[in-house]
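Researcher: Please translate sequence to structure tokens.
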Amino acid sequence: MTHTHAPQPSSVRFPVQPRLVPPAKAARYLHLTLPEFLELLPALQLQGFPKACPITGNYDMVAIDAWQDKRSGLAGNAQPSQSSADIVKARLATLG
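Model: Translation complete:
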């Protein structure tokens, strides 16, 4: 007779940093209160801020970091965030 044993927990524990965080933690990460975050969210999203996961309602910390890196000019050759008017002018200029 074969006995099936449940996996035993390891005696070594590692901290787990969640990638998806609730709105309150995303707000804190941006040094905002939750009400400030919720008030500014539409404007942030117009600037490319990542949307929450449609299933959990949580925000992806890696996506938030990538968004901020792009805005700050730290994402390789990416330029800091431009206004939509500046983007349209630049695209029109390339058309001739």
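Researcher: Any highlights?
Model: The chain has one domain: 20-94.
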